[in-house]
Design goal:
Number of helices: 5
Order of helices and strands: HHHHEEH
Radius of gyration: 19 Å
CATH class: Mainly Alpha
Strand order of the largest sheet: 1-2
Shape: elongated
Helix content: 55-70%
Number of domains: 1
CATH architecture: Up-down Bundle
């Protein structure tokens, strides 16, 4: 069998599951954030803000689980033919995007939690479990933190779009089947 026809190493099923659950949740959470930010003060807005916080804390926990999985289960290397075809700048963007995404998986929810705490609105997970304030209540601090949650969320979404564009380029332009390494099922 030709090495080009040999099955490429794939991600583990838990890595795939964490990837796709986080991807869908991040996109949904970002959409919810955009929608709720411009709503007038109302019961709906308050409900959405609480859901947004719950989802953010849940994503923070899933991100920690994903990081632990990644550190204890090496991802498969890029296939040699794909790696050799990529210019140096693409390798740098590939690795830089992954590192930045992992950092933002933690930065975005932690900054959101800090903002909520500083604004005097505690996070009560699922309406049942009060979490400790991340920072003390301080309106001036809240105003300093507030834009950073939005900026970091938009940065993360920009990297998600870049990551998606690269995956689609590999699938439809390069036709190297790289995307299949992250899809469940047989190759």
């Amino acid at each position: 069998m030709d090495t080009a026809d040999a099955p490429q190493p794939r991600y583990t099923l838990p890595a795939m599951a964490l990837h796709w659950v986080l991807a869908l949740a991040l996109i949904g959470l970002f959409g919810m954030g955009l929608f709720m930010a411009d709503l007038p003060i109302s019961p709906l807005r308050l409900k959405l803000y609480n859901w947004h916080k719950w989802a953010g804390v849940t994503l923070l926990a899933l991100s920690l689980l994903r990081l632990v999985w990644r550190l204890t289960h090496r991802p498969p290397p890029l296939p040699d033919d794909v790696s050799q075809a990529m210019p140096v700048w693409q390798h740098m963007v590939h690795h830089g995007t992954h590192y930045a995404l992992y950092a933002l998986f933690f930065i975005v929810p932690l900054v959101g939690w800090a903002y909520s705490s500083a604004a005097g609105f505690p996070v009560v997970l699922f309406g049942q479990f009060p979490l400790p304030d991340f920072v003390p209540a301080d309106k001036a601090l809240a105003e300093l933190i507030k834009p950073w949650h939005e900026i970091s969320a938009f940065a993360m979404m920009a990297l998600v779009v870049l990551h998606l564009a690269a995956a689609l380029k590999h699938q439809w332009v390069d036709k190297d089947q790289l995307l299949h390494r992250m899809l469940p099922g047989r190759r």
